[in-house]
Amino acid sequence: MARETPYAAFNFTVEMGDDIESSSAFGGFSDVSGLSTEITMMEYRYGNDPENRMRKRPGMYKTGDTTFKRGVMGVKNFADWMMKTRHDPLTGRNLIVTLNDEQGNPVLRWKLVNSRPLKFTGPALAAKGGTDVAMEELVVTSEGLEFLEV
User: Fold this and answer.
1) Where are the alpha helices (DSSP H) in the chain?
2) pTM across the whole model
């Protein structure tokens, strides 16, 4: 039977590890965006085509950069990971993003393969009072995007 309502976008977890059994929580996030993959198409002209049409063939697959946003929580896992990859830039980590239903059961999982921090943006600190939350952002680059079985 088909589901009548879409899953809530805010009901997800992010973990760091090779698979869901051995992964550890990466942190609480308010937003994960950029889960994407695309294929580049190679164009060429076939020599015997009398109409001189362009042909397209699949080329390389590309994974988009993923952005993680969260309120500053006083934990250093972003900074620790960035420092580790600065000293050993070839060592990436797998990140697993899980979408859960209303009862907390996993529905969909995406695995960002061999991810590395690309950019960190700290919070904007402004003494204007009010209830603004200090947000930090981490952009990671990955070598692949996999869809995992739940």
Assistant:
1) 77-87
2) 0.80
